[in-house]
Design brief:
single chain, mainly alpha, globular
Amino acid sequence: TTLLLVPAASSVTTFLFLWELMAITSLLLVLVDHRHRPGVAVAGQWYAVMTQFGSAALLVGLILLSSHAGNQSFAAIAIASAHLPACVRSSAFVLVVIGCGSKAGMVPLHVWLPRAHPEAPGPVSALMSAAMVSLGIYGIVRVGDGLLGGGPAWWWLLVMVLGALSALFGSLHSATSTDLKRLLAYSTTDNVGLMLLGVGASGLFASTGHPALALLALVAALLHVVFHAVFKGSLFLTASSIQQ
């Protein structure tokens, strides 16, 4: 339910409340089997620390925007964003990338993924990897493009660099992992990196005056989000069945 409600938020308070509720409910789901396996509690601790770190960055970034815009409504922030100081816009964007990137499993904020997924029940891993990490990509697009209306080229070059690092790191580790669910967790980092490359390329093309290429790159990134949700959810359910 919280996964469905986060994209429906239209104000800073609502978005942050639902984002935190999503984090808490997903943590509880990760800890379902903590009485049967001691490693579950450790994985839950890693996930809790990283998700709260990301939530704090997201909180500061969105409050920075709403305080300077004089309104917490997303529509009002989008209208006022063009008149905000460049340092405020850039600081808010970087903080949102950190906050949403930690939820998406972006390198170097991915450390909870290979710990939480092997310990979580299969359906929980499927839901988190298929849907929850996608909301990290949604958050970056929602703020960077929807609220801030794009930005300088270095914003999107930063996103592309983080995406390239995530894709390379995830692919190397997934190729060498022996645990089936840990392999899929690293594969999520790999695919999130490819999504970030598409989002970053879209923003870069838009900032350099190539709207057609920007649209094409964004559509490619969002298609990857959808298809990754389908195949990664199926793979985690299958891996859980094999292990059982």
